[in-house]
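Retro notes - structure team

What went well: the batch runner handled both jobs without manual restarts.
What didn't: labels got mixed up in the shared folder, which is why I'm recording both outputs here explicitly, each with its sequence directly above its tokens.

Job 1
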Amino acid sequence: MDWLWIPITVWAALAQTVRNAAQRSLVATLGTLGATLVRFLYGLPFALLWLAAVAAATGKPMPQPGLAFFAWVALGALAQIAATALLLAAMQERNFALGVAYSKTEVLQTAVFATVFLGDPLGAISATAVLAATLGVLLLSPVDRERPLRTLLAGWTSRASLLGIGSGAGFALAAVGYRGATLALPDSGFLIAAAAALAAAQLLQTLALGGFLALRDPGAIAGALREWRRSLVAGFTGAAASAGWFTAFALAPAAHVRTLGLVELVFSYAVSRRFFRERLTRLEAAGMWLLALGVGAIAFAG
């Protein structure tokens, strides 16, 4: 059972790739926040069905969550929404690429927050893997290709970079919150604990973002309802990816899951090279090797 989180995380990364493609096709029609709402609104029914299916398959009763569970779910759900908003704000800055690059420190921040708030262990191999993967992702990010590290170090106090760091912190807190929620149901079994946390998070995010858009941009909600066919695809794949992430969080430390989840980038670059004949620069190749080293090491450590 100690290794089960590895294939589940790889599955979540693959499903997330499909979800991103489906969601991206809706941005032009619904706007960024409208397309984000689709992920929660249309994913919620599938999350509830998954919870019911897990309960039926395992024969376990529905969990009776306490205050701690709901507190962790609220942290994860709201931090994820805030992280998305901060990332969008970073992208609107003149030096948006720097902000996006700094948001990639999510994995490193997850390791720190998980250790502080959850007491998740982080051994020498795991710490090295997290650092290698973070550096690899930064080298693959769209910063100044001539002086990438100098640009990152010199620009860390800019507004764009601070927004990016804030976004990474939000995504890190979301991972920690979701793992904390699954750990708050110790007697339920990892599958139903993860499914219950997913359903609760999707419901809260639907209500929170849906309520915000109802006040600020009701047309986005109407558009999401009109585009129900394409939205169902995004909702289903989003729920499938989230089910994988939540289940992995129930089985392994958040930093391990998020680091291995970066295998999504390895898949993307492999496809790019195989099917589109795109070649990596030396800098990108170095980043890819560091990323692969981090992903491999965290799987070995897990």
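Job 2
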Amino acid sequence: MQRINLLYVITKLELGGAQKQLLSLIRHLNKEKFHLFLFTAQDGFLLPEALSINGLTIKKSICLERPINPLKDLLALIEIYRFIKKNNIEIVHTHSSKAGILGRWGARLARVKIIVHTVHGWSFNDYQPILVRLFFIWLERLIAHFTDKLIVVSNYDKQKGLYNHIGKENKYSLIHYGIDYTEFGTRGQNIRKELGINTNGLVVCMVSCFKPQKSPQDFIRLAFLVKKVLPDVRFILVGDGILRKKIERLIRKFNLEKQVILTGRRRDIPRILSAIDVFVLTSLWEGLPIAVLEAMASSKPIIATNTGGIGEVIVEGKSGFLVPPGDMLKMSERLAVLLKDKNLRAQMGQNARESLDFNFTLTNMIRKNENLYEGTIKNKGVIYAN
């Protein structure tokens, strides 16, 4: 078989789970089988990393962006269509909601042979106005008709899609995020010195984009509640985004300047995770956040909101605690229990690490994606002549 022209489309290479997984896939995919292309926005925190990958052709769009903009979205669609035709693209694999819609429409118009989409959480959620939510459900249903495969990262997203009549069950394929375990678990106490944290002090961490989905303000509220009973605990919030100013105002409102550290975006997540005691996540909705998997690989106990596929990897009371979204009082109670019990933290962290099996390895993620491409080619009887 000749090399297959494979195009990935993602809205923006910001520092997020979908973006990190896509770059891992591109980096490790068999270059003898696939000629790889990437269509994305013209800026992004991880764009330099993408540009450094050998054998990858990148198109930086001047029109593709996350906010809905009818004119720019139409122009981005035209850009995608033209790029597909120019490069004789044979498989289009889209990631993220916006790119998933525009990329698959562009592929359809260009008569691409195989169209694949990875659901990193659906484009609709329970926090949207009902008419907006219904519109996106309708749109996902429509586009699913000409999507050959829908990859989900959690069973939750598969069931959510089927419940909303998005595609048939045989279109779905579960491929978990892949973690390179060798990157996690090393000791990095020097990060504490760098951040001005006492070597023996207790540290709680969250890694996320500062956007409504992740509800980072709840992390600040959590710090305020815990400070009342454990005033010396430090809280590290890793990331950045549109909610940063609101977060900073909330820190000042609660007088948490000495308790909370905002690190900004970081590339050394394994180092930071190695130096913390408990990992928390305050998301309102999720697919399956890679930050939780990375914390588990670092042998850290998890306290997270019970949303999306998080409950598929965290066993209540064994590898962590799950609380309802928005319930920071309950989260603070669970967190206090862990912070006061060193042995419990160690046992839960060990359980978390041991619960990650081969399904969550980078090797498995790459293999399953390659098998999906090749299996779809075979099932459709596609013959490539390039």
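One thing worth noting from job 2: The chain has two domains: 4-178+361-380, 181-359.
We'll revisit the folder naming next retro.
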